[in-house]
């Protein structure tokens, strides 16, 4: 089997899973609004996902490391995704939506992290760029946002379950063909996780980037509602996501050419600066077409930030605990930050409008960038050598 053949199922898994993820991130707020929920209630529902992920991601990461398999854990989670999503989309009352949403996110939230963890290990094994594999997730996200946005504009937001299940079934089918990880060591014990909890550079780094990731997650949750507030349609929301994630895919695809030239923290700080400027500009916009035009900055911000941060924390944690460390990172990025972004963002957009929300996000991102710069200048920021 050639290198590309062995990676094809993994690329297809990333494509199809991120295609499902697009539907939830881009259109779930509008779907919940269609169900009769207001902005604050939508914020509560969106916060359930990050809350569930705080528990789910370290749990599934630990199980992956303990049993030395990513493939089998992915299969369990994707099966859970399909079953729980059918039930989740049948719920109507706020309490029922929240409770079923917790079950749904328990299975869905670790899939992206496990897929990226597997991609990182396979890229190391085969000596190929991680970005060249990960970009297929971005391509799936972009493709789905464009197609599904048009479809839902035609048939109605209430039918978003069908495209979601379509991509979910594809993810399950290709997961059976994955090449699993090979770890030549004894299974980890619960006491081994102490190596992550006591890793000061890792913990401090996660604490600092929360300021930036809160702003990112708030944008994920509310850019659709903000575009709708400014008079945009579902298809415009889909187009905005397509432009953003297409630029993200390009950044990942070209990572091998730019990524290893400087210390990862340099790229993370640069992304933080651009994040700040991006949110302040969005706060001043009064026509959704300008948001779409500026969405190429998503690739320059999230693409550079995520790739650099993922690489940085991979070097900070022992190889034996890679899945656990990666999913702890995800729990902070998409969990802790997601809760704060959803709850605070929902209250702000409800009370003051999207412009104020984005101005506050700009302040958060700028604060995180300044602290991260100081971290880079201090000894903890020197925890790894410049990439070779």
Automatic annotation (TrEMBL):
Membrane topology classification: Multi-pass membrane protein
GO cellular component, one term: plasma membrane
Highest taxon listed in the record's lineage: Bacteria
Residues in Major facilitator superfamily associated domain copies: 8-358
Protein localization: Cell inner membrane
Record-level Gene Ontology MF annotations: lactose binding; lactose:proton symporter activity
Keyword terms: Cell inner membrane, Cell membrane, Membrane, Transmembrane, Transmembrane helix, Transport
Membrane-crossing segments per the record: 12-32, 44-61, 73-89, 95-114, 135-155, 161-178, 199-216, 236-255, 262-282, 288-307, 327-349, 355-378
Protein name (Swiss-Prot/TrEMBL): MFS transporter
């Amino acid at each position: 089997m050639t290198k590309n053949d062995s990676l094809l199922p993994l690329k297809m898994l990333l494509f199809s899973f991120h295609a499902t993820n697009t539907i939830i991130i881009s259109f779930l707020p509008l779907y919940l609004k269609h169900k009769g929920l207001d902005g604050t209630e939508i914020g509560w529902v969106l916060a359930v996902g990050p809350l569930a992920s705080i528990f789910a991601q370290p749990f599934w990461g630990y199980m992956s490391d303990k049993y030395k398999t990513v493939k089998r854990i992915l299969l369990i989670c994707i099966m859970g995704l399909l079953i729980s999503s059918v039930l989740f989309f049948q719920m109507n009352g706020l309490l029922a939506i929240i409770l079923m949403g917790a079950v749904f996110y328990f299975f869905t939230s670790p899939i992206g992290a496990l897929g990226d963890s597997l991609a990182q290990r396979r890229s190391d094994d085969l000596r190929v760029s991680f970005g060249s594999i990960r970009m297929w997730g971005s391509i799936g996200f972009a493709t789905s946002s464009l197609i599904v946005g048009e479809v839902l504009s035609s048939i109605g937001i209430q039918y978003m379950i069908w495209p979601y299940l379509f991509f979910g079934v594809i993810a399950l089918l290709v997961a059976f063909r994955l090449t699993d990880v090979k770890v030549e060591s004894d299974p980890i014990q619960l006491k081994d996780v102490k190596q992550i909890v006591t890793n000061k550079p890792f913990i401090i780094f996660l604490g600092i980037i929360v300021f930036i990731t809160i702003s990112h997650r708030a944008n994920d949750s509310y850019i659709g509602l903000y575009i709708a507030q400014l008079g945009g349609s579902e298809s415009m929301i889909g187009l905005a996501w397509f432009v953003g994630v297409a630029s993200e895919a390009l950044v990942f695809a070209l990572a091998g050419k730019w990524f290893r030239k400087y210390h990862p923290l340099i790229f993370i700080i640069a992304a933080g600066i651009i994040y700040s400027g991006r949110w302040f500009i969005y706060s001043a916009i009064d026509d959704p077409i300008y948001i779409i035009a500026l969405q190429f900055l998503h690739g320059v911000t999230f693409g550079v930030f995520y790739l650099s941060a993922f690489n940085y924390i991979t070097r900070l944690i022992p190889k034996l605990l890679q899945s656990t460390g990666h999913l702890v990172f995800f729990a902070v990025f998409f969990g802790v930050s997601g809760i704060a972004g959803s709850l605070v963002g929902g209250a702000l957009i409800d009370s003051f409008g999207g412009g104020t929300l984005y101005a506050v996000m700009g302040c958060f991102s700028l604060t995180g960038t300044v602290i991260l710069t100081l971290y880079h200048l201090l000894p903890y920021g020197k925890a790894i050598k410049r990439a070779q």
